[in-house]
Amino acid sequence: MRDVRLGDEDERKIEMDRPPLSPTPGKAAAQDLAAPQSLEKQKSQILGAVSFYFFISISLVFLNKAIMKNYKFELPLFITWYQQVVSLVCIYLLGIFGRSYSIISFIPPFEFRTIVAKDIMPLTTVLIGMISFNNLCLQYVEVSFYQVARSLSICFSILLTYLILGQKTSQKAILACGLVFMGFVLGSLGEVNFSWLGVIFGIASSMFVALYSIYVKKVLPYVEGNEWKLMAYNTTLSIPMLFPLVLLNGEIGRLQEEPVASDPNFWVVMTITGVFGYLISVAIFMQIKHTSPLTNTISGTVKACVQTILAVVIWGNEITGTNAMGIGLVIAGSFWYSMIRYSEMRK
């Protein structure tokens, strides 16, 4: 943290009250020249951050689906566990590199203290539910329907915020939630390759996403409000906590019978997917850092549209009129809800 000396606030007030000095002609010219360059740099950073988020976020979904569909590797809990192992390696290495490279200096060195881990463990349980049900849902639904299947996180967020925190939500936000729910129903009714298991796992994932967003605020003080330290603890704890579920689901025994398990190329893809699973957190952070919350909201909405279109083009997912209407309502309702929450936060 910055060393705040006694009298800093007074000095800043004096500086603010002091009339500005007229710049010299040479300095004024330099400022005029630097302004467009600074603006261009800012635009490049915004474009780079949004593009990076788009690429990582969409690629992660498609890579996970490719592992299950193309490689016919239908062990979703093992995939989740392996990705957490790869993420932990990334966290440790980038924590080291962050000391030397300013571009990733926001990532702190890896740390793990048992006394802190005990406080984080309840949140890790919620995280395991969230990421496990994500991949379980993706196993049973098409990528084009994935957004719809997991769309009820907004509805659960409103409900759980009231039940756990006692906070009420505005009527406009509830209306937006109703629009999302209508989209969920229509999208489900119109889905060609409908799967009850996929929908159930999607609903469970939505619930855990909402729970995570609520409980993460309670846990952050234990890691000095540092999201990166929280990620390190969550990832470290999730590996031993998730492994018993992989065993109980019989996936270790089935792993030995999988033909692709002996294919080096498959493990390369699995490892890349794990790296992308970590980079999505970096991408979200970079987008929030270099853009406004409004841009972040719009970016997420556009990404959902692009992901659905790519699913149709790449995977050939069939979309009916009812299904398309449902997807449209989910995306529109989610965008409307985000805009309402954004305007409420600014008041």
Outline:
It contains 13 helices and no strands. It is an all-alpha fold.
Verbal overview:
Helix 2 runs parallel beside helix 12 (about 295-315) and helix 4 runs antiparallel to helix 8 (about 195-220). About 80% of the residues lie in helices and about 0% in strands. It is globular. It starts with 7 loop residues before the first helix and ends with a helix. It has helices at about 10-15, 25-70, 75-95, 115-140, 145-150, 155-165, 170-190, 195-220, 225-250, 250-255, 265-290, 295-315, 320-345.
Short key terms for the protein model shown above:
single chain, 347 residues, mainly alpha, 13 helices, globular, disordered N terminus
User: What is the CA-based Rg, rounded?
Assistant: 23 Å
**Biggest β-sheet: count, sense, barrel?**
none
Instruction: Report the sheet-strand fraction.
Output: under 5%
Q: Indicate the mean pLDDT.
A: 83
Instruction: Tally the helices.
Output: 13
- Helix/strand/pairing category: mainly alpha
The tally of beta strands, per DSSP, is 0
Distance between the termini: 29 Å
Query: Low-confidence parts lasting 5 or more residues at pLDDT below 50?
Result: 1-23
* Gross geometry: globular
User: In sequence order, what are the helices and strands, one letter per element?
Assistant: HHHHHHHHHHHHH
Proportion of residues in helical segments:
over 70%
